[in-house]
């Protein structure tokens, strides 16, 4: 997906690292991250420069940072409009955990508490204020904002403003006129919505032009994607869950009834599973949710009512026990897994009956929505049954491009392993003949009963015990025949009536019966978890740190991930930091977390190292920067863009060639090269210098300015050269200098 830079202003010199050094410092010190995720730098740049924007990133793509980081640098508070009360509270706790002055205002607060928050706002004590839209529109809130020099208005879940969206909220409509009341405040809207129409609607409602649109990459490379036809028994689900023991995850079901029965079955099987759906009493729901969020229960069995606004970063798996209604909702639901960037597994189980039941609901729903919903369902079903790389189906659906293989889906894995094809022609012929003999008037179950020689009343009543196919399938289980029938439907050999479930034969079915066509199925494999979150983590230490986190969390009565994410623990367990400085180099460890928990974690790690003889293991390449070593986060997961770019340049490609290849600006590539060098990569200074567009005299002036003023901050150099040399060039030449040293 490439929309980003292209859609912005045409100016050539809009480098994203125009970000002030402060932005990187805040990223590191407050949030504990050492790099921006895709599009975050652009969004932060826009906000800091007073340019409105609409940020479209998938769930888990890191939208919050796009306004949270600028909020710490802007000259006035940021107001975040959010429709979800639980999410608001969660974000405020996380921000406070990072030492940021944040608060929220919504209907759950007492009058007195609200007054206090408004007082703090007026007094300039808050950097971020989260508000529900209806609260924001209250006169006293607006007045307090007017007195507070509002710097930024962030509108989260911005699709709520559009009547075309799936979650239209009329209060959101009133946010648009509100903007004129705060003309000085920059506006950033955020959403994960897929459709073009909704995106355009948001822009229009907020009075932003097309250039304000920043669309991110919807790929979540750390999610393993898999789908399989659901077997009649629980075997697949159990095998999958056993592979994820002690990990947190969600099993989504389409009905409350399935939630109840599946949760009970899983409990019988010894899993710490809990049910969640809108039919349970509010206190029970609340209790179950809290238990899960706090890692007291691992498996949440739930309807889609669960998950909105829950920001748990260490969800390791999502199972869909039924076919979802659309790829939009599916992608949003699996987006709850692996927010910490570590591997997570997403398994979709489905049957053709699922398809029928969703259709049934669609046909019983509003006429005006029928067509749209049917199309969304078909896209979902195509995804479920595709034999091709799943990312090559889902990413184009969200408007992106993708070149398979992704290497992290079941179909890619099967391709790599050499798919095992099983010839089932003979069984298929038996089944299809049975459908033919019963005049295509019955469904799967009845045909299976005939094949298995059932004495059931309905079979005998119809005289089906007299058919030549009666009892010819006794050698195979009922489950086998049912699954085969599903496969025949999926391969379009049989058609199933959406309402009555009766089976019809297609031309291909006749060809199979005549022996003209063979039927093969591809053996399915249920994904097995990767127990180690980061391949090189010490799992014993990881467990110790996890227990420590749990007890600290219980003490503070907060969810564990508010303390540290799994990814932070995994890095600690891979690098064994011994000092505060080393601990700070771990993902998610900022200064506030260091102050609060640093000592406890360092003590535990030091004790472990004393017992086992382990010692500080610096991340593979260390950066020469003042920030200390930069861990190569997620290096074991996938190669990051700057590494790819650095390697391409090192292999002899020019900046221009690489820029063309990624369809980005020259400046973006220079930025990646700087990161590459910063992370310990080596580049030839001469080749970089040859990329400069300045003549030798101008280059010499720049180098001299670096000598006099240093090159840490570029703006003094820019000023000293009277603004005659573009930042692009300064960045490039600074890199040349670093590489000469
Ligand atoms: P969204 O709102 O888009 O669903 P969030 O803002 O909740 O996503 O962020 C998703 C996850 O990504 C969170 O666990 C957050 O800690 C993590 N994250 C955000 N920004 C960064 C970053 N720059 N580096 C590493 N992790 C990040
Ligand atoms: Zn794939």
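Sequence proposed for the structure above (741 residues):
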């Amino acid at each position: 997906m490439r929309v980003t830079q292209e859609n912005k202003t045409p100016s050539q010199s809009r480098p994203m690292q125009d970000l002030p050094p402060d932005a990187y410092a805040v990223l590191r010190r407050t949030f504990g991250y050492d790099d921006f995720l895709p599009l975050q730098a652009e969004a932060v740049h826009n906000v800091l420069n007073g340019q409105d924007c609409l940020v479209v990133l998938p769930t888990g793509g890191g939208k919050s940072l796009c306004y949270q980081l600028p909020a710490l640098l802007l000259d006035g508070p940021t107001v975040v409009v959010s429709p979800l009360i639980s999410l608001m509270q969660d974000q405020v706790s996380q921000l406070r955990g990072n030492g940021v002055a944040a608060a929220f205002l919504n209907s759950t607060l007492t009058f007195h508490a609200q007054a206090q928050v408004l007082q703090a706002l007026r007094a300039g004590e808050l950097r971020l204020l989260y508000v529900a839209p209806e609260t924001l529109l209250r006169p006293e809130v607006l007045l307090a904002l007017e007195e507070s020099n509002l710097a930024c208005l962030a509108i989260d879940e911005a699709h709520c403003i559009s009547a075309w969206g799936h979650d239209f909220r009329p209060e959101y409509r009133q946010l648009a006129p509100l903007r004129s009341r705060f003309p000085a405040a920059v506006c950033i809207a955020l959403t994960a919505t897929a459709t073009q129409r909704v995106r355009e609607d948001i822009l229009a409602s907020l009075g932003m032009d097309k250039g304000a649109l920043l669309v991110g990459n919807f790929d979540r490379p750390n999610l393993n994607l898999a789908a399989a036809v659901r077997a009649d028994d629980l075997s697949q689900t159990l095998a999958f869950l056993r592979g994820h023991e002690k990990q947190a995850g969600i099993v989504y079901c389409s009905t409350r009834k399935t939630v109840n029965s599946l949760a009970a079955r899983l409990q019988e099987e010894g899993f710490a599973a809990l049910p969640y759906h809108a039919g349970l009493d509010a206190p029970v729901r609340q209790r179950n949710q809290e238990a899960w969020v706090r890692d007291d229960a691992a498996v949440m069995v739930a309807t889609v009512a669960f998950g909105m606004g829950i920001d748990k970063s260490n969800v390791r798996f999502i199972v869909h026990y039924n076919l979802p209604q659309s790829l939009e909702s599916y992608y949003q639901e699996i987006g709850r897994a692996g927010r910490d960037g570590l591997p997570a597994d997403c398994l979709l189980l489905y049957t053709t009956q699922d398809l029928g039941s969703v259709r049934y609901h669609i046909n019983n729903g509003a006429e005006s929505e029928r067509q749209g919903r049917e199309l969304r369902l078909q896209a979902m079903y195509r995804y479920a049954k595709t034999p091709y790389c799943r990312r090559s189906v889902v990413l184009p659906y969200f408007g992106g491009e993708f070149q398979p293989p992704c290497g992290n889906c079941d179909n890619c894995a099967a391709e790599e392993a050499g798919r095992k094809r099983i010839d089932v022609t003979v069984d298929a012929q038996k089944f299809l003949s049975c459908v033919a003999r019963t005049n295509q008037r019955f469904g799967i179950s009845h045909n299976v009963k005939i094949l298995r020689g059932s004495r059931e009343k309905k079979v005998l009543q119809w005289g089906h015990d007299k058919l030549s196919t009666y009892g010819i399938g006794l050698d195979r289980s009922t489950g086998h025949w049912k699954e085969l029938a599903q496969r025949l439907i999926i391969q379009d050999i049989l058609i199933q009536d959406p309402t009555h479930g009766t089976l019809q034969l297609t031309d291909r079915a006749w060809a199979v019966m005549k022996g003209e066509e063979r039927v093969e199925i591809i053996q399915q494999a249920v994904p097995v978890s990767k127990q180690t979150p980061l391949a090189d983590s010490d799992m014993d230490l990881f467990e110790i740190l996890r227990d420590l986190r749990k007890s600290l969390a219980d003490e503070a009565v907060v969810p564990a991930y508010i303390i540290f994410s799994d990814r932070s623990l995994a890095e600690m367990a891979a690098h064994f930091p011994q000092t505060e400085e080393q601990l700070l180099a771990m993902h998610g460890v900022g200064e506030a977390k260091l102050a609060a928990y640093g000592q406890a974690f360092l003590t535990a790690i030091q004790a472990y190292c004393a017992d086992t003889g382990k010692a500080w293991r610096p991340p593979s390449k260390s950066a020469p920067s003042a920030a200390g070593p930069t861990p190569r986060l997620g290096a074991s997961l996938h190669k990051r863009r700057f590494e790819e770019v650095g390697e391409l340049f090192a292999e002899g490609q020019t900046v221009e060639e690489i820029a063309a290849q990624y369809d980005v600006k020259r400046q973006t590539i220079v930025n990646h090269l700087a990161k590459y060098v910063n992370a310990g990569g080596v580049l030839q200074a001469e080749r970089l210098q040859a990329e400069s567009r300045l003549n030798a005299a101008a280059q010499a002036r720049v180098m001299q300015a670096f000598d006099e003023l240093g090159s840490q901050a570029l703006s003094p150099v820019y000023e000293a050269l009277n603004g005659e040399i573009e930042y692009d060039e300064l960045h490039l030449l600074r890199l040349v200098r670093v590489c000469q040293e």
